[in-house]
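MOLECULE: protein
FOLLOWS: sequence and fold
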Amino acid sequence: MLEISDIHASYGRVKTLSGVSLSAKAGEITCLLGRNGAGKTTVMRTITGLLAISAGSITLEGQPLHTLPPEQIARQRVGYIPQGRRLFAELSVSENIEIGLLACGEGRETRDWVLDIFPRLRERLTQRAETLSGGEQQMLATARALCLRPKLLLLDEPTEGLQPSMIAQIRDVVLRMKAEGLAVLLVEQRMEAILTMADHAVFIENGASIETLRGDALRAAPETLTRHLGV
């Protein structure tokens, strides 16, 4: 479904990606792995149009994404949960969800579906986003992305800084989205999550993809994580 072919990108004069290729298929979780500074978040930003590529291509179901502005990429049903959540802090939970619904013209049915996934948010609809706990903010960021009814879900370090119970809830939601047929591209550092969830793992280093493994091959040789990630 998602195909990234030999993309290159820069921040000004600093080249950050120099040949990343990967695919993420419907109903599968693809983990994007690498050391800090390898370019994982930059790849996510190129998919969502927040950073232009200088070479290569990014397509979703055969349609180019890299030629579109960010708002049109979102309308292609690409849901993005960035590292750090990036909520509208002064707005309520309900207002953050409404903004998510507007992107693709979704309505009450989708709103109810999202709140059924995250019942805790239903209890906090009038509460300002900035007053939520870290785990609740991650729930809200995920809910907002799901309001697009995405075909492709991008998650950048979704469990960072969360307590174990919240990590388990986010994991369950990711697995549910996989079961519902979404293509999931996940940046994650926790070995347990990678080994239990990955259908495919793509390792990048210095802005280039260096190895792709099936999840079963990774589980059979977990030392690969140590070799590439130093963990």
